[in-house]
Design brief:
By secondary structure, this protein is of the alpha+beta class. The protein contains eight helices and eight strands, in the order αβββααααβαββααββ.
Length: 312
């Protein structure tokens, strides 16, 4: 460290293991890679690895001590940053799991409570309508209005339930759920050609992986429909052997032929949809890649290693 050049070793302001270091220097002891810190004259704290070895003369008498100090401040800072990133991703994964559990609970409550109430209201309104069709036109019209309103609310609730938690995921599995979602998008957006390609072993993924696939596809299609002005959106979901191990990777790709974009840092653009997809992938040890340029569409690629704990 240039700021410390010329300073006597004994005068350095060691903050850690001060007494132990003093003993080593006094007795010319051998030590290897002992971690310590000191406060530089400019007030900055420095992390060091200290190694010492005695210096002998021809008669093998100790005449001094050779000491090396290696600055590991940047290494320690990088290690702390990696630890913080790992903890943040574990927290993100936990929050995703909690959020999905809450969505599942809300979807069940909406289906069981509100859905049953709407069905009861509609049933009573149908009885009233049928009994007043010939005798009381005004009551008949009011009953029909109640039926129409209940049907509309039921459709709204059904769409909310689907957005919160796709029920086919529990009943049918991942692939039928994705196919049903693509069909639903096609009905809502007839001007866009949707297609989906699936391959590999996709029927043995656990709950978290199924929801990750569904949410990534859902968010990517939503972005493409809203912003891309695309005429074609292609979805690929498959499992494939990793090139450098016996494990498989889960691969998700969503491509469109829209207007494209200039790829910038996701944080600078504060695109929470893209950030959410990236964090989902990285919290599972995967990779997220966005490839695009103006006029050439967007390709989103997610690769997640399939460990045994991510399978049923």
């Amino acid at each position: 460290t240039p700021v410390l050049k010329g300073e006597a070793l004994a005068n350095l302001g060691f903050e850690q293991s001060h007494q132990q270091i003093a003993t080593i220097l006094e007795n010319c002891e051998t030590t290897e890679n002992m971690e310590t810190t000191l406060l530089r004259p400019d007030g900055e704290k420095v992390s060091l690895l200290m190694s010492t070895v005695p210096l002998f003369d021809k008669e093998q008498q100790v005449i001094g001590l050779i000491c090396t100090l290696r600055d590991i401040t940047e290494l320690k800072q990088a290690e702390a940053a990696r630890t913080q990133l790992r903890e943040t991703r574990l927290l993100t994964q936990h929050m995703d799991e909690v959020q999905e559990a809450e969505r599942r609970h809300l979807a069940r409550e909406l289906h069981d409570e509100l859905g049953q109430c709407l069905t009861a209201i509609k049933t009573d309104a149908v009885l009233i309508r049928n009994r007043t069709e010939q005798t009381e036109p005004r009551v008949f019209n009011s009953a029909q209005a109640i039926i129409d309103t209940a049907s509309h609310i039921y459709d709204v609730v059904h769409n909310m339930i689907t957005r919160l938690r796709p029920s086919p995921l529990d009943d049918l599995g991942l692939v039928p759920t994705l196919q049903q979602a693509i069909t639903s998008w096609q009905e809502r957006e007839p001007g866009i050609q949707f297609d989906i390609q699936v391959s590999g072993r996709l029927d043995n993924l656990n709950e978290m992986m199924n929801m990750t696939v569904f949410r990534v596809v859902q968010e990517a299609i939503t972005n493409a429909v809203r912003h891309a002005d695309a005429t074609q959106i292609h979805v690929l979901v498959k499992t494939q052997k990793s090139s450098d191990s016996e494990l498989e990777n889960l691969i998700i790709e969503i491509r469109d032929d829209g207007k494209g974009m200039v790829v910038k840092d996701l944080h600078s653009d504060v695109d929470f949809g893209l950030l959410g997809m990236r964090e989902r992938a990285q919290s599972l040890g995967g990779e997220f890649q966005l490839i695009s340029e103006p006029g050439h569409g967007v390709k989103i690629s997610v690769i997640i290693p399939l460990r045994t704990d991510r399978l049923l």
